[in-house]
Specification:
Shape: globular
Number of helices: 16
Radius of gyration: 22 Å
Order of helices and strands: HHHHHHHHHHHHHHHH
Strand content: under 5%
Largest sheet: none
Distance between the termini: 23 Å
Number of strands: 0
Number of domains: 1
Mean pLDDT: 85
Low-confidence stretches: 1-19
Helix content: over 70%
Oligomer: single chain
Length: 454
C-alpha cells in the first residue's frame, strides 16, 4: 500500500465498484482466512456437545454452563488479540520488523501472566462461579468438574489469543486458520477417545479441550520464537513493553465488559419473559452471532490494515481502506439481512419449535435482519479504531452505548413489553454504537501516525 498516494488517486479508488478496488485484494486476503478461523471453534464446539450429549442431559447441561463461564472469562481478555494486532501492525507499517515481533513477544508474556492469574483465582472459585448460573445441583456438579479441568488450559487459551494477534498484525491470517482448524480437530478426536472410548465422562471432554488448547499455544510459541530468532530479537520479558501492553489493554477491557454486559442483560430479560421467550431469543441470538462472525472477519482485516497504514504514516491510505471496508460491511450486511428476512418464515421449522415460540421468533428475526447493514458498519469501524489504537474512545463509546441501552431495557421491563420490544432495545444499542463510531471515524483525531501511538 503506497504511502505517497495522492488525494486525487485515492478519490478515484473510492469510486471504483466492488471487485475493482486495489484494496479489495488485501481485504479479502486477510478477511477470508479470518472468517474461517472465527467460525472453526463454534462449529467444532457443536461436535463436543454432540459427544457429551451421549452421556445424558445432566452432563450436557454442565458442559453448557461451564463453557459459558469459561468463554466469558477468556472473552474479557480478547484485548490480547486485538491490542497485539494493532501494536504489531503499526511497527510493521513503520518498517520495524524486529520491533513488531518484540511487541508480539510482550503480548505473549502478558497473556501467560494473566492466564496464570485466571487459573490461580478461578480454580478454587469454580463451584461458586457455576453456581451463579442457577443450575440444578447435578448440573452444577458436572459444570464444576469441567470448569476446573479446563481452567488448567486457561494460560494456553490466552496465549492462543495473543499469538493470533501477533500473526494478524504481521498480516498473516492463514496461519491462525490452520492452527484453529488443527486444534479443533484434535479437540474432537480427544473428546471422542476420552469421553466415549475411555469413558472419562465430562472430565474427558475438559481434558480434551485443555490439551488441544495447549497444543495450539505451543504452535504459536514456536512460530513466534522462529520469527524472533530470524529478526535477532530476544524472547525474554521486557518490563516496559509489558506495562505498555497492559495499559493499552485496560481500555479494551472496559469496552469488552460494556459489550458483554449488554448481551448478558438481554438474555436475562428474555429469560424472565417465560420459556417461549427465552427459547425464541436463544435461536435468534445464535443466528445473530453467526452473522456477526462473518461480518467480524472484515473487522479483523480492518485492524491489520489500519495499523499498518498509520504505522507507515499513510493517512490517505488509511482513509481509503476504511471507506472501502465500510462499503464491504454495508454490502454484506444488506445481503445477510435480505437472506435472513427471506429465511425468517422457514427457520422456526428447522428448529422444530412450538407454535408459541414461532410466533415470537419470526418478528424478532425480521428485526435482526434489519440490523445487519448497521452491524456491518459497526463491526468495521470497531476494527478500524482498534487498529488505530483508539482504545480510550472505544471504551467511552462502549459505556455510552451501554447506558442508552440500559434506559431502553428499563422501559421494556417496567412496561412489561415482550421479546420484540427487547430486540428493538437491542437495536437501539446497535444504533448508538453506529452513531458514536461513525462520529469518530468522520473526524481526524483517530488518525495518529507513527510506529507507536502517542
Amino acid at each position: 500500500m503506497p504511502s505517497s498516494a495522492a488525494p486525487s488517486e485515492t478519490g478515484r479508488r473510492r469510486r471504483l465498484p466492488i471487485g475493482r478496488n486495489p484494496h479489495d485484494a488485501e481485504i479479502l486476503r486477510l478477511a477470508v482466512p479470518a472468517f474461517g478461523a472465527l467460525v472453526a471453534e463454534p462449529l467444532f464446539l457443536l461436535a463436543d456437545s454432540a459427544i457429551v450429549g451421549r452421556l445424558g442431559t445432566t452432563p450436557l447441561g454442565g458442559l453448557g454452563v461451564a463453557s459459558q463461564a469459561l468463554t466469558t472469562l477468556v472473552g474479557i481478555a480478547i484485548f490480547l488479540a486485538y491490542g497485539t494486532t494493532a501494536a504489531v501492525a503499526r511497527q510493521l507499517g513503520a518498517g520495524n520488523q524486529a520491533a513488531a515481533i518484540r511487541q508480539g513477544i510482550d503480548g505473549l508474556w502478558l497473556a501467560a501472566i494473566i492466564g496464570l492469574l485466571v487459573l490461580a483465582v478461578c480454580w478454587p472459585l469454580a463451584p461458586l462461579i457455576v453456581r451463579a448460573f442457577g443450575g440444578t445441583p447435578a448440573v452444577t456438579g458436572q459444570a464444576t468438574i469441567y470448569l476446573r479441568i479446563s481452567l488448567l488450559g486457561a494460560p494456553s487459551m490466552l496465549l492462543v489469543l495473543a499469538g493470533t494477534g501477533v500473526l494478524r498484525g504481521l498480516q498473516d491470517t492463514r496461519t491462525p486458520l490452520t492452527v484453529a482448524v488443527a486444534a479443533n480437530v484434535v479437540n474432537v478426536i480427544l473428546n471422542a477417545v476420552l469421553v466415549l472410548g475411555l469413558r472419562w465422562g465430562i472430565a474427558g471432554s475438559a481434558w480434551g479441550t485443555a490439551l488441544a488448547q495447549t497444543g495450539a499455544a505451543v504452535c504459536y510459541l514456536i512460530i513466534v520464537a522462529r520469527g524472533a530468532r530470524r529478526a535477532g530479537v530476544t524472547i525474554t520479558p521486557d518490563a516496559g513493553g509489558l506495562r505498555a501492553a497492559a495499559g493499552a489493554g485496560a481500555s479494551l477491557v472496559v469496552r469488552t465488559l460494556a459489550l458483554q454486559a449488554v448481551l448478558v442483560v438481554v438474555t436475562a430479560i428474555a429469560a424472565r419473559q417465560g420459556n417461549a421467550a427465552i427459547a425464541a431469543h436463544q435461536i435468534a441470538f445464535r443466528i445473530w452471532i453467526l452473522l456477526a462472525f462473518a461480518l467480524d472477519a472484515i473487522a479483523i482485516a480492518a485492524q491489520a490494515i489500519t495499523g499498518k497504514c498509520l504505522g507507515a504514516g499513510d493517512v490517505p491510505g488509511a482513509r481509503a481502506a476504511t471507506n472501502r471496508m465500510i462499503g464491504w460491511g454495508v454490502v454484506y450486511g444488506v445481503v445477510f439481512g435480505g437472506l435472513l428476512a427471506l429465511a425468517a418464515p422457514v427457520l422456526p421449522g428447522l428448529f422444530a419449535v412450538a407454535p408459541d415460540v414461532r410466533r415470537l421468533l419470526v418478528p424478532v428475526l425480521l428485526v435482526a435482519a434489519l440490523e445487519q447493514p448497521i452491524a456491518g458498519v459497526v463491526f468495521v469501524l470497531d476494527g478500524v479504531l482498534i487498529g488505530a489504537g483508539d482504545q480510550d474512545y472505544l471504551a467511552l463509546a462502549g459505556l455510552a452505548a451501554a447506558a442508552l441501552f440500559a434506559v431502553a431495557a428499563a422501559v421494556v421491563v417496567t412496561q412489561h413489553a415482550g421479546l420484540l420490544a427487547l430486540w428493538l432495545a437491542f437495536t437501539i444499542w446497535m444504533l448508538a454504537r453506529f452513531g458514536t463510531l461513525a462520529l469518530r471515524a468522520s473526524g481526524s483525531r483517530w488518525l495518529v501516525t507513527g510506529a507507536v501511538r502517542t
